[in-house]
Amino acid sequence: MQQQRLVANRYALLAELGRGAMGVVWRAQDQVLGRAVALKELHPPQGIAAEERNVLEERMLREARTAGRLNHPAVVTVYDIVRENDRTYLAMELVDALDLAGIVQKHGPRDSTWMAGVALQVLGALEAAHSAGIVHRDVKPSNIMVRPDGAVKLTDFGIAQAMDDPRLTHNGGIVGSPAYMSPDRLHGWEASPASDLWALGVTMAHAVEGVSPFERTSTASTLHAVMNEPPVLRRASPALADVIRGFLTVDPKRRLTAPQARHMLTAIAQGAPAVPLPRNKKSTAVKVAAVVVGVAVLAGAAFAGYQAFKPQDSGAGQNTNQPSENSTEWTEAASLPVGAPLPSRRIATFGRGGDVPEWNLSGTQCAKDFLTQGSPVRTDVPCNGPHGIQLFSAATPLWDKPKDIAYPGTKWLADFTKNYCTEQFKAIEPNIKEPIGFTGLVPTQKEWEAYHDAATPGRQEVLCVLWKQDRSPLAGSLVG
Questions:
Q1: Could you tell me which CATH class the domain 6-93 is placed in?
Q2: Which of 273, 277, 330, 434 is deepest in the core (most CB within 10 A)?
Q3: What CATH architecture does domain 98-164+178-279+286-291 belong to?
Q4: CDD domains under this entry (predicted)?
Q5: Is 404 a catalytic residue?
Q6: Pairing of strands 348-350, 366-367
Q7: Which of 80, 86, 96, 138 is flagged as catalytic?
Q8: Is 40 assigned to a binding site?
């Protein structure tokens, strides 16, 4: 029988709980105190530079110091830190639970009431940290453990930033997970309690909708989504959606605060009447740059078009030139007969009364049939099997405006969409080996104005759709 490995003549390693690029987490037995612990072992890849190894070790020490300063039931307790044989180990409270990301993956989207209870506990941990002058900086589903009894533990304070501790941003980069970073952080502002609350809002959206709202196929497209594409909340209850939108307010000065959120979440968790979203004084929204931390964010031209927003008439243009499938220019063709294929690079409308009267795809989903005049797209099919079209990107043009804002007009939406879909297509075109057609869909006025329809809510997005130019079936996803 193989002898158990013993660390520091105290911790017997029993089983491996998880492994990553930088180390291993073990289930271990503290033979001095007779209790089970989680032992995090830092084990950087071979060949890593000494400077980077020192940064990683300092982050582990920071995690121990930071967690040690906090006394809250939703913060994982750190017991000990030891060095042995040139390796660093962190002995921590053992939490027998899945993380929130694993729960969603295994069991599907979470109920809004359940999520409110989890969010309240995470909020408590963050309030304790913020009161101690600590910003977590990496709140996300994989760092939130939820036990079967509903108790929550916020983990991984390794990149937390204390006011009296120097930052550890290796090589000058922003540390954290891009899909959960707030626009103010991506714009170069310091991490703050408000940026932690943004990340909590993204986490809540992920849990109740079942997908990470800003995660895309590349860092650039993820950053663009954070800047310009608020998540569409279809599963969240209206009360929880208000909390999420409050956390995802672009201007950190207008963002929902922890006390405001606690009041709203408590009502949801207890089944009490919803607490309305606080009305902040009107102020200028943060205008975020189209280039962030050295990465050119896609669709800058489309975003610039939004900044100069002026409502136009609802006409789609009078150019009646017939479009060509191989054209490199966008066209505005005359009306098509019902059943006619929608051409490439010709803006069409979707939703109530549109060229595509119903559209139910989201994310990067695929559909069996091709786009044709007058035909709805109601159901998706797996992208790894035969399909006709794929939604490869979507954006919410007036993302920081009230959702009851007047319809900006088909002409304005079409101009936005041409720029946006062209830039998004350029990002994936180098990976495509065959001629592809693509176009943009904009909502009709009726679809736009039905945003608050409780039974069948309308959409205020623009959509980018692609297919093979010869209209033979696609065999796999062209987007990641």
A1: alpha beta
A2: 330
A3: Orthogonal Bundle (1.10)
A4: STKc_PknB_like (cd14014)
A5: no
A6: unpaired
A7: 138
A8: yes
